[in-house]
Amino acid sequence: MFRRREPVPFAFIAEADKFRSNVTPPPKERPTAGQIAGRTLVGLTVVAGLVGALLFGMPALSPDTSPAQTQHSEAADR
Description:
Elements: H1 11-14, H2 33-61, H3 74-77
């Protein structure tokens, strides 16, 4: 095996962990009371929708315990 004589073209990537930037990110803005209230209301609305769908959907998912009743019209009786 022979070794390559030319330098690696991406040598700066190997040195990236030694580099320290002097640029600091801007401080994060704290959410206002209105934003917190809005996010809370949206979250509660989503949870209430899921709970409501579960409550209304449970009767449809439960097995029928009563025997099947056939419907007949009054016209068929006469």
